[in-house]
Every structure is written in C-alpha cells, then in structure tokens.
Specification:
The chain is an all-alpha fold. It contains seven helices and no strands. The protein has one domain: Ribonuclease iii, N-terminal Endonuclease Domain, Chain A. The model has no long low-confidence stretch (mean pLDDT 91).
Length: 128
C-alpha cells in the first residue's frame, strides 16, 4: 500500500489493524518463551496489550516517530471514540489508539524493519 494512501486511512481502521498485529507479536513472543497453558498465556499477554501498557509504549517511542507517524498518531488520538477500555483512563485509551494506529500504518505500508525497531525500543525494558 502506498504511504500516503495508508496515512489517510481512517485512524481507527489503522488502530484496528495495529491492535491485531501487536497482539500477534506479543503472543508469538510468549510462546517462544513458554509452552504453558493457554489461560496463563492469555493472562500474560493482557499485560502487554492493555490500553494502560500501550499508552506507556507510545510515550516511549513518540520521540523517535517520523513526521508521518506523528500525524497518524495525532489523528488517531484526536478521533472521537464511542468506546473506552473499562480499566483505563480516557487519556491512556487515546494514547493506546495512537500507538495501535502507528503500528497499523507501518504494517500496511510493509515497513517491517521499522516495526522491528519500534518493538525493540519497547521490549528492551520488558521481561518478555
């Protein structure tokens, strides 16, 4: 997909794709470390895919985002949302949506190297 085309997609659509990609990434990391029970894997994954964690990840990568990524994140953060996580503040939820949109954007344009770089920044402090 062309960068401009992807950048102009509905930011919640980008977040939808980014959420799925991030969840799969985390699940893959977990099963590389453990062949545990599915419920335990699910509980562990939830620590990384919840809005509170994602808002922290966004704050960590924000200084390193490109202009296009910042524009995508800004549009996602400012989109009127009809739902909200029950265990997060609205501010965390909006930052998590921005995080997911940046992930979704990079995935749609095929920028896997960029995703690897961003994920490395995030995971350097994680116990995963």
């Amino acid at each position: 997909m062309i960068t401009n085309e992807a950048a102009n997609k509905n930011p919640l659509t980008l977040a939808f794709v980014g959420d799925a990609y991030w969840t799969l990434y985390i699940r893959r990391r977990l099963i590389e470390k453990s062949n545990g029970k599915v419920n335990a894997l699910h509980q562990e994954a939830n620590k990384y895919v919840c809005a509170t964690a994602q808002s922290k990840y966004f704050n960590k990568i924000a200084p390193f985002l490109t202009e296009v990524e910042l524009a995508v994140a800004g549009r996602a953060r400012n989109t009127h949302q009809h739902t909200m996580s029950k265990n997060a503040t609205m501010a965390d939820y909006k930052l998590a949506t921005a995080f997911e949109a940046v992930i979704g954007f990079n995935h749609l344009v095929g920028n896997e190297q960029r995703l690897d770089n961003l994920f490395s920044m995030i995971m350097e402090d994680a116990c995963l």
